Amino acid sequence: MTRGSLRLRxxxxxxxxxxxxxxxxxxxxxxxxxxHVERRVEAEIRVYxxxxxxxxxxxxxxxxxxxxxxxxxRFSEPLSGLYWQLQVGNQLLRSRSLWDxxxxxxxxVLADGAVHRHRIPGPDGSGLLALERSVxxxxxxxxxxxxxxxxxxxxxxxxxxxAFAADLLPYLAVIAILLISAGYxxxxxxxxxxxxxxKQLSQIRRGKARRLGQSFPDEIVPLTREVDALLEARETQVxxxxxxxxxxxxxxxxxxxxxxxxVERLRAKGEAEIADQVEQVATAMRRHVDRELAxxxxxxxxxxxxARVSDVVQRVLAVVARTPAxxxxxxxxxxxxxxxxxxxxxxxxxxxxxxxxxxSKGVSSGPSGGGIRHHHHHG
Length: 379
What we know:
Elements: H1 6-54, E1 56-58, E2 64-66, E3 82-88, E4 91-94, E5 115-121, E6 127-136, E7 145-153, H2 155-205, H3 221-268, H4 272-299, E8 307-308, H5 309-320, H6 324-327, E9 329-333, E10 340-341, H7 345-361, E11 372-376
Antiparallel strand pairs: 1-2, 3-4, 3-7, 5-6, 6-7, 8-10, 9-11
């Protein structure tokens, strides 16, 4: 396929469209998965928030303590990436995983029971996704306001997203190959009618068909109709040209026949020199007219015209042999019976008639070659 190939253009356009669509799908699916993971993480953090608030109790000395810590073991592992923090007045409770650090929560106003979502830096410099809630403690815990927060290292979300993207990529590559292959098949099937048009035009050019017809898809039929109309118009022009060529032949032959009669009358009057000059001019004109008319008629031959050469030659020889010049010769034909010429039989007969007539008149200059041979009579 070359750069100007319609098939190549359609394939490239389809391939680019598939790759762009799948690239956007890859980005969109990865983004949606990350949002889904964040929602799942937030739901998990809300559970931890409830556990932190419900686990708060008062010790024997009256201080607030975390009687029941959340069950996830990461809260007990230093810098594990999962942290909780509870502040009641000046008292700060926090998970062991924070060690001696503190969650850098923004100073915002929280309504009772409201939950705020924050992106904050972690104790090890990583980013955290934090949920913060403000609650009013019951009377047994002092009836004060408490701010509880649970945070998770956002790198876990990013790692999950990257793993999903890595798993997704091979599947998208397979889908891309399948879609591009399907596009190739679609283009091949879609352009097949054009190949059928090309073959039918070849049949018309070789004379095995006259029209394209309408046995094509609906989108191709208007094109075939226009081509058929063009072929019909050309055939009409050819027929008119053939008719004009015939009229021209008759128009020239009649004056030439008159000149031939004048030549005979001049000779009868004893003006042989003038008669010879007129005859030479008339002969030259006849040859020139015959040659040009033969060329014209052969140039406008119909594509479907066929002539069996041996039959036409036999028919022409039957006429030429009756002429004075042709009757003095022996003719033999060496042409295969199955030889076919792409020309109208009448046009071929006229061209061969002029050729053989001129050859018989000039045979005195020596024998001619080719598929038709002639010999002098002896005796």
